[in-house]
# Entry
Amino acid sequence: MRVAITSIILAITLALVFSLPALAQDSATITITMIGLNEISITLDKTEWSLGEVASNTEYETSPSIEWCTLTVQGTCNVNTFIVGDDAKWVDNPNDYKWTLSNDGSNGEHIYGLWFRISGDTEANGRGYVPITKTQSEFWPYPGGPGSSLAPGDTKQFGLRLLTPTYFYSGRQMQTQITISAAAA
Amino acid sequence: MMWRIKLLGLIAAFLVMFLPSFTVAQGFSVFPAEVKIDDLPPGQGAEFELTIRNKDEIAHNFTFTTFQPPEEERRAGRAEFPDESWVSFSPQEIEVPANSETNVAVMVAVPREGRWTDQDWEIWLGVASESTDLLAVKLYVRLLVSTSATGPNTALVGGIAAGIVLISCGAYYYFRRRTKPQRV
# Structure
């Protein structure tokens, strides 16, 4: 009888010894740091492109072609910027008809291409026109490129190129969106 | 020749419009640009606030999302955040009046599992103004989460297991002694 009671007391003691760190863990200090107290912000001086009616299998460029829109870094931190596109959807019934955005800037039936080019970024010293796809990719800087992160006050001018599908349904107003994003460098 | 004329007619009929008119992009900012949570024990949550500042002359609706950055964009030593559903926003979207700012709560909760101890993750929190314009802006806040080195489960389960084993041993010896035939 004495052995049993001793064993039970020992068991409870050991259980508590092992459990105490766990219980103590529930009241551990969690540190939340707002790094650098930085504010992030970028702006674009244009958000829409007046294209009007377009024909099939045709390229359209913004005017001026590569200095059409200006991205300005505001806030208080250096940023890396990114770009991503999307399918163009029929405004009247977005679920019924769309142009699929190609993943290499090419076109096809109901498939369209979108490109961007940053001013000063020529094929000789950089990328020239770059396809915009549905996967987010680097806008500026980019791997292997000459530039670095953009600092507050820095600007980048760029233009867009649209390659319409080789075939699409006529008379439908299409709408798409290109998102330019920024993260602290 | 007839086929060519027909084709030209068709192409001329293929009309499309990207929305007309030019506007200046909406200006907004997010503070802070980077948040670091250290020593988060699996099974517990942490909460902090993001401040959204609408610098525009009109009110805007802002939406909040998470994004898994590719490895080359993450901070050194940071792995992919295992599950985006562990991060939540309250509210999920919010209207911010012109020239004003508002706070949004962000909750991070890591499940109570031993495998999530001593981890360093990164995920981005996306803030975007709702818009139908061709060009839109999204701002990312880097969220760096480090979990504590010792998980509560290991110690708790170890303690309970040790307790059960010892109680069983005690009970075994107790009943063995009771059932032992007495010498006459």
